[in-house]
Dynamin-type G domain-containing protein (Oryza glumipatula), 606 residues
Amino acid sequence: MENLISLVNKLQRACTALGDHGEESALPTLWDSLPAIAVVGGQSSGKSSVLESVVGKDFLPRGSGIVTRRPLVLQLHRINGDREYAEFMHNPTVKYTDFALVRKEIADETERATGHKKQISPVPIYLSIYSPNVVDLTLIDLPGLTKVAVEGQSDSIVQDIETVVRSFIEKPNCIILAISPANQDLATSDAIKISREVDPKGERTFGVLTKIDLMDKGTNAVDMLEGRSYRLQYPWIGVVNRSQQDINKSVDMIAARHIEREYFANTTEYKYLAHRMGSEHLAKMLSKHLESVIKSRIPGIQSLISKAIAELEAELHRLGKPIAADAGGKLYTIMEICRMFDGIYKEHLDGMRPGGEKIYYVFDNQFPVALKRLQFDKNLSMENVRKLITQADGYQPHLIAPEQGYRHLIESCLVSIRGPAEAAVDAVHAILKELVRKAISETDELNQFPTLRVEISNAAFESLDRMRNESKKSTLKLVDMECSYLTVDFFRKLPQDVEKGGNPTNSIFDRYNDSYLRRISTNVLAYVNMVCSSLRNSIPKSIVYCQVREAKRTLLDRFFTELGAREIKHISKLLDEDPAVMERRANLAKRLELHRSAQAEIDAVV
């Protein structure tokens, strides 16, 4: 039992140290899964006196109005020997042997968090008490419920206190210790009212009756203690606290416990209940019940921790590693991110990721279709053929074949191929830019650093623009080469001018008849189609060589060169991670540390 309760004590301390207070947040919480006993009661219900009776020490602040303004997580540790001392988690190096100083430190720590205006804070104070006179137990002392605000408090104080109390007792792993004075009607008990709302079946509520000795003469608390006034799953427990007179006379807890035992043993109405009455029985019963609850919850806690660890590790992996502090580390980080981006980009081009197939579509469909759609009819109409042939002849008609006319006609047709060639270059350029955008979005590490993402994007686009310009030059050179030098063998293989059944003298002396011009037009079109067929194969090769190949080889080369020449402050600006992301990563790391520690602690005990 001691191991299990000590285990939960350790985990609760770790939760608070690493910022897990069970509040609603986007982070997995361990606190909410840990069984705990929350002490609930109205002001002046005797709640503080019950806790001091359980501990056997005067250590809680006293006074009028709202004294408990922060949850107090009280962890009791039974030890051997005669020494008794206390430790606060916010000041772990100091061991308090004077419990009057413990009372003062609770008040001072409350003031540090809430100020002097008697406001409420949901952040717990952690107090551990080590003594041979206690049982292993953890109790959470919550602010006393009230119905009105006193002077100096905000109007919302009533609701604020209830919100804090509910944040603890609404959790299914919370055991509720409802403190109610016996000299008041249970129907008006603040503790019973709020407990009923969160635990209507009374399955996790323990009722404690205080001030039994202060009831009017002729009345008793038997009906309440027997559960006839209000039934809970567990028996009610009555306690007799020290009176104000006893406190003023400095009656110690050992004597007070003896007086309490004597009261129940010698009072006729309660004599038969004496074996389950008193603060000592309350402490032992709560300790035993807490141990059984912890034991039943351990498998679920282990499962929750394993799931939370997997979620935390996955999100930390997605957020990436924290930024290195030194210049070399920062430069290495940038280079590694660029390498990851470049690898993803190449995977798109090489077919391991989608997108590269669009380039082949340009070569296999878009470019050939554009070539087929070229209209050579206007260039090769009878009027245009006659015009160019006669112009090329000048004042002397050609003797055998109109060579200059052929050249002019072919050039006028081939020039129009420049349009589809440039369009193919631009289409591939657009695809390469789109793949850059995809690769950037798929490089998770770039999501950390908006400035670096923009810089890499701009550098890649600038490189692609340069590659496009070079590709256009090379591609258009292929077209211009076809214009500047014709394939002689094509014309040598053409049939003679003499047509079947024709008169050879017509083609020699009547140079410009329609039949002759149509033959020229047909020959030119055949040659142009041959050139188109050739360029259909060579232009894609030029584009791949100048754009795709270079994009794979040198996309970020200029960026790397410029990066090496930058000062450290400019390099640091590239790693301007969102502060919210940095904070999130730090919180995730703390929460992961908590869950791993909890997993190790539970494994060691279980």
